[in-house]
Amino acid sequence: MDKDYLELKQWLEETKDEPLETMAGFFDARIDSYEEHMARWKAHYQWMADLLPTSLETLLDLGCGTGLELDYILARFPHLVVVGIDLSERMLAQLRKKHGDKKLSLVCADYFTYDLGQERFDAVVSFQSLHHYTAAKKEELFRKVHRCLKPGGVYLECDYIATSQAIEELAFFEAQRRRRRDGIKDEVFVHFDTPLTLEHELACIRKAGFTVVELVGFLPKDQHTAMIRAMK
Ligand SMILES: C[S@@+](CC[C@H](N)C(=O)[O-])C[C@H]1O[C@@H](n2cnc3c(N)ncnc32)[C@H](O)[C@@H]1O
């Protein structure tokens, strides 16, 4: 068994009795330490901002949270028109506090059910939000992302990936075990990491009809966080 698998096994064992938390409940409860905790991704946030096209005018952020990627994106594009969607009202309140002077529309909603519209955005981004969902849920969302992008638009995703099929399966198995134990229905979103392998993630995006779907890469010393780009 590889090192990542053994580390996951050990972490699952150590946390096996912890109750699952709902997605919004998890982030609402950690709002005060959230940005400090996420500071480790600074280089990834900058990278995402750098990858956006110079001509960018309209952007949708799926799971924008407190807007850490937007800190970098808005520094590069201060006049950008942004729609940010997140389940956590407290995360959105923090984002509003930081960037209230910018052209932001913030929506407290579930991006799977919220109407993203048609050919509205030059770019869609998602940073560390989608690694809690199944391939079936993601395929549904990527079709909506494709639809809401203008022709030639770009989707950028920076997120955890499972480094093996065994890791993907183990995490989903454990998520189901904890759901059954805690009596949580499948349709309730919980904060438990279930990343897909890179191959599975790319396959889900390809099914939505993008012309190009590619791994942009990884940053040095981090083989767990992939930057993915898709072009309409
Ligand atoms: C780890 S945080 C990342 C936030 C931000 N992108 C960042 O990098 O700082 C994940 C965010 O995704 C949001 N989220 C998860 N599932 C969601 C859903 N189905 N609809 C909307 N937001 C969701 C959570 O509420 C949370 O704020």
For the residues shown, what is the average pLDDT?
97
What ligand species are in this complex? S-adenosylmethionine
Tally the beta strands.
7
Rg calc: 17 Å
Number of helices: 9
**Sequence stretches where pLDDT stays below 50 over 5 or more residues:** none
Please report which band the strand proportion falls in: under 5%, 5-15%, 15-25%, 25-35%, 35-45% or over 45%: 15-25%
Query: Main sheet?
Result: 7 strands, mixed
Cα end-to-end separation: 39 Å
Helix content: 40-55%
Strand order of the largest sheet: 3-2-1-4-5-7-6
What shape does the CA trace take?
globular
| Secondary structural class | alpha/beta
In N-to-C order, the SSE pattern is: HHHHEHEHEEHEHHEE
Oligomer: single chain
Please provide a brief summary of the model.
By secondary structure, the protein is an alpha/beta fold.
Describe the 3D structure.
α5 (68-76) links the parallel β1 and β2. The chain contains 9 helices and 7 strands. The longest helix has 18 residues, at 165-182. The chain has a 7-stranded mixed β-sheet, sandwiched between helices. The mean pLDDT is 97. By secondary structure, the protein is α/β, with parallel strands linked by helices. α7 (135-148) crosses α9 (198-206). Bound molecules: S-adenosylmethionine (SAM). S-adenosylmethionine binds next to α2, α5 and β2.
Show the helix and strand layout.
Layout: H1 3-14, H2 23-29, H3 31-38, H4 42-51, E1 58-62, H5 68-76, E2 81-86, H6 89-99, E3 103-108, E4 121-127, H7 135-148, E5 149-160, H8 165-182, H9 198-206, E6 212-217, E7 225-231
Parallel strand pairs: 1-2, 1-4, 2-3, 4-5
Antiparallel strand pairs: 5-7, 6-7
Helix pairs in contact: 1-8, 4-5, 7-9
Bound molecules: S-adenosylmethionine (SAM).
S-adenosylmethionine is lined by residues 23-24, 27, 38, 63-66, 68-69, 85-88, 91, 110-112, 127-129, 189.
